[in-house]
């Protein structure tokens, strides 16, 4: 942390988090920890550069097992766990009984369970880990010492996600930290309660570097089976000399690190007219609105590198083209639909695509009604919505300078919304606020308002996908606004509003929530000098 | 705070009336009024196709036949208003839309309504 930041009253550099909370680095007593909400899953890019569901533990209440069910027997708490705390559970079964993770799993797919187990009797016993189906049984030998067991299986929609049963000793078994994650490798344990409100610390594509706190608006992936192009929901069609696309599922490792990318061969035959094509698509009823389509694609063979594949968004007939490489790329296109029935998908079509046969690896197709792309939303048999993230802290007058101070925010600008959207702001009583927002004219506005009159009202244009460091310094009759090391505006008149709440994106309503990646934010209770503001905001 | 995931069908007039119960009007940073949803996330699925469109050679041969009811999925963050109850619908899980990762919330509501459904009865484990 820089010397300047060490002087701050509140510093948020995304690093520590749990359900509902993003920890602050200053103060460390919890008074500055930010409240976080998002009532659904979301995805991020993890430190290894892989797309990952947050939270990755798909089970509920994994520390308390409070929503877990028993097929007879008894579950009691308070036993010594591997970390020497009294947080393990003892399950004593009845014949044929078991312990399972609540209601049936609604989604299917390849998953890995992990759980710490120990024999109550102290002798070696056996039990089964799986989903209760005969085809998904992993028999493990449990001893009198704690051991972490894993089992990989394909969950069915009629079974619970994790079932522990067929315990061979009547004394029962100790259980601690159960988890189920997507893929064939067990991830580090992530404790859950309701699996909601888990912050996403996302990394740059490819991983590495420092993470950002990803705060996004609500968005829906309209396509179904976003990772399985073999499903009938994906229409395979052809015309002229073309053949219907041929899909081989789970052919290669995808951007989530598992073997679930599909190979799709688009062969339009010998013809080279626009009437010769091979086409993979889904159909939707669209509004007259802007849609964004994204998909991860990669050349399947060295011979496909450099070939073009055409794709179509919800627009009025336009074709887009992607040049395939030997790396995964998330291709993005925006288009305004005319309304009515429209198709979205990929073509190999004469006059639009190069290569009469193109083999492509595909994963993670997304189509959303949005003017910019948002993080990937996985779908299976239904479309899926990621609800908005919101991050804020109320009741912190003691951490916000009441007569002078600085609000600093370092973020990557993702895109403008259709209405004004806050990026970061302090707020008090009605009409009292200090902060930055994007307006409906696609500019960012910095405002200080004390009971209504607005001071330091300036606006600049931001570039999408660019990192910005912004700071507003405030003191009676002494205001300044700095962006990326440069002074944008100063104002030698005005009073300071009294604020008690710190918000990132506008957290009152889902529709007004901005999408940005926050690298750090800080509050100071003194007005830094202009040279310090320049230093603080230099990229 | 307990969350509830429910599915509804309304006539357009019913929806126009009932949505006001879960809307709020706020002042946006530019001073304008913005009406949005309060204490819930709403996804309007619209008039769902009863019979899908027939498409051939990139042309719509037969248009889709759409329902006359407006379908809406709502994830309530507080107790759902009682006025919405008559309009609840319960397609087999998950229907055509879900809130990502919240399938269990819809299943809770579904199984409360249909406790004997195969979706709600966990079979005994098979060895």
Structure, described:
The complex is a heterodimer of chains A (539) and B (127). Chain A is an all-beta fold. Chain A has two helices and 41 strands. In chain A, a hairpin with a 4-residue loop joins β33 and β34. Helices cover 14% and strands 42% of the residues of chain B. Chain B is built from two helices and nine strands; from the N terminus they run βαββββββββα. Chain B is globular. Chain B starts with a strand and ends in a 14-residue tail after the last helix. The mean pLDDT of chain B is 88. The chains are: A mainly beta (539), B mainly beta (127). β30 (383-386) of chain A pairs parallel with β9 of chain B.
Output the keywords.
heterodimer; A: 539 residues; 9-stranded antiparallel beta sheet; 8-stranded antiparallel beta sheet; 41 strands; B: 127 residues; mainly beta; two-stranded antiparallel ribbon; 14% helix; 42% strand
Query: How many beta strands in the DSSP annotation of chain A?
Result: 41
Overall mean pLDDT score of chain A?
89
Work out the largest interface and the residue count of each chain: A-B, 69 and 53 residues
State the distance separating the first and last CA atoms of chain B: 39 Å
Task: Give me the number of helical elements of chain A.
Answer: 2
Shape of chain B: globular
**What is the helical fraction of chain A, as a range of percent?**
under 10%
Report the radius of gyration of chain A as a whole number of Å: 27 Å
What multimeric state do the chains show?
heterodimer
CA-based gyration radius of chain B? 18 Å
Separation of termini of chain A? Answer: 15 Å
Strands in their spatial order, largest beta sheet of chain B: 4-7-1-8
The biggest beta sheet of chain B, please? Answer: 4 strands, antiparallel
Number of helices of chain B: 2
Low-pLDDT segments, ≥5 res of chain B: none
Strand content range of chain A: over 45%
Q: Give the topology string of chain B: H per helix, E per strand.
A: EHEEEEEEEEH
